Amino acid sequence: MSDLDISAGERGVIRLFSLDMRPEEAKFLREPGAADQVLGVSGLDPEQIDVFPVSDLEDLGLYGYLNEGCGVSEDQLDRAKLESVDGWVLVLRSAALGGRAATLNPDPRLRLIGFYTEEATNWSGGTIETDSARPYSAPRVAPRQQRARAQRLGAMIFALVTALVIGGVLWLIL
Q1: Mean pLDDT over all residues of the chain?
Q2: pTM above 0.85, yes or no
């Protein structure tokens, strides 16, 4: 599989392209459907495509953008290669295809700089062995005690509201 083949269900992959075109043409790629044309694929989600000049990143640079902004690990990034890129770039996340498989057929003015994967969160965990994690492990309270607690709470709220009303009426009278 090449870097331009996107498999069904692909997640967390970022493809970075440099754009060899005038700034006006690059800005136009921000319009809905324009990136579809230059990448040779239809139905891309424009929210998952970034088009910008590298100069907008200022001190952060492409290295920082990918590492800090996109969650790409440092071992995948070549700082020298990324610092040599100037002009406009297009960042395509695999989520732009919404889980569909596709093969990109980019315009000749697009050059693939790199193929990166975002660090995935490891959601697996071990079994929790504490007593409090067992179902129905909370201490049981007798229904009579629960009712008595609810009645006391209700009586306190009623007394508070009554005191506030009486205080408000007395304040208005005086």
Answers
A1: 90
A2: no
